[in-house]
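Sharing a chain and its predicted structure for anyone who wants a worked example. Both blocks are below, sequence first, tokens second.
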Amino acid sequence: MSTPQKTSDLHAATQVTLIGAVLDLVLGILKILIGLLSSSFALVTDGIHSLSDLVTDAFVLVIARFSHAAPDRDHPYGHRRFETLGTIALGVVLFAVAGVICFDSVRRMNQVDPLPTPGWTGLLIAALSIAGKEWIYRYTRQVAEQIKSSLLLANAWHSRTDALSSVAVLIGILGAQMGYPGMDLAAAFFVGLMIAKIAWDLIRSSLSELVDTALPEEQVRAIRQHVNTLSGIRGAHELRTRRHGGHILVDLHLQVDERISVSEGHYLSDLIEDSLRQEFPEITDVVVHIDPEPDNVDVPQNLRLPLRQEVKATLMKCWQGILPEGALHRLELHYLNNQIEADVYLEISIINRELEELLKERSQSVPWLSGLNVYGML
């Protein structure tokens, strides 16, 4: 990702988070004041929840700045995993808030004193909170999806908890006014459970990213099917995927024709990378391994085959006295089926059937040589 793009993403994340922080501050104060005046414990706890969002908003601003920093020597893949850690921390905060709300709700339910009935003003602030928090949730989520930020998406869901909890508060106040005052505390307890559920979902998804959990099978299947449709590819295998701070990293093996050149294989690799990024915008990094033949787990690859210099020296020793000096123009080696097949390009003026047969006969004793092809070259 280019530096201007990162700067733009950071600006967008900062702007939407600051707007949400102002909204949290205003709604939090209003909920607590109106909750105390209208005797609604659920509204007070909802206000505390809104003010707690200020802490997470500040946390999001700090982590967003770290996560958008450019890659460096210690973090060559960038700093996106700071978002993942931030999301886990955000989930822990939500768990703590949920625990306090549930505990206090149960404690108040067990009191012998009659519970007060919330006033009608509580309904108005609850409705205002629903509208405001739902709006900031949708706005934050839109920005999060645009810049592919898992932390910002988590903060959006944090805002959604305020909207949903305000719905519970609204129901609780209405129930209390209908003669069921315990519904106000029950609504507060339900808010706590709901916050705990969202916190668990955030922590679980972030932990799965930290341990490099693969994408869902349907997404992996879609990536594999797309690769297999591209020209020049015989098949894709060893496809591995993982998430990295809202982005997707992919590495895979591609089987291609065993006799294409290195440059053609490199071009196919670049083509695959570009095509995957175009088709799946979340994919930011692709590592391609080119295979000239299918991987066979039952036959381990022979990594003790000689390299080019040794191959050339061995063949020239076998052909000593047969080839004139400078007759060998090019030597192409194909490492296939745990052996080496050699394509020999000679001066076309000396090529004939007798020479070709003699070269093959003299090299038959080489144990790692599976075949020899002789070609003429101007």
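Comments welcome. The mean pLDDT is 82.
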